[in-house]
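note to self: dont lose this again. the chain is below, predicted strucutre after it. 237 aa total, dont forget to put it in the shared folder this time
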Amino acid sequence: TAAPYASRRIRYWDRAATELGGCRTAGVLIAKDKDNNYYVEHVVMGQWEPFTRNEKMRAIALRDRVKYGPHYEPIIYTEAEGGSSGRAAWKMVAKALAEFNVREDRVTGDKETRAEPWSAQLAAKNVYLVEDGTWDILSYIDEHVSFPGGLYKDQVDASTGSYNLLSGFKKNIGMKVLPLRPREGKGKTLRIVVCSRQQVSLLNVEGRALIIRLRDPLCLESFPPYMGDTVAELEIT
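---
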């Protein structure tokens, strides 16, 4: 009936731009708890022209903010589209969601290949559907059962995008990993991961970790909570 409140969340949008026909736009919200269970909390879908779609995305972002508050509000991702038309479409989405943490996700490979890690989690029964009466669970299940042969693939594609980011399957994309090798016989290699503030919440850290944050003294924006095995945080201004 509900996912654990203190979970990491991503709302992933698979966008379409045709009103009352063609492909559908789907926005899938998935939460990941501390035990690596995944919860599909909410799905919205429809066939909207671009302006109406962007307004719908904004309304859903406001809904998520009210529901989860500042600490567990979902990061919003939308699949990147190529070409000049794709860049123009992204600029309009970014404007509509100007006060939210919205990002592009550049995908590679076909939908079937990208869905394989998500399929494995479903088969392992590590995924739960939150049945709270706010979304069409039967349609979501039917699309997954018929994938990849069904008429629509938007809910599966959006779920795949959200899962791959939450699980760390794409954690090295956009991040710089610097191996520091100690002198001979002095132990294991130390990994230094340089990433953005937003990407910290997507990191999977095993064992002990030290987070060093570099902050502009003129920036008053607070650092989001990190749910990991962090033993210390050192602030350098």
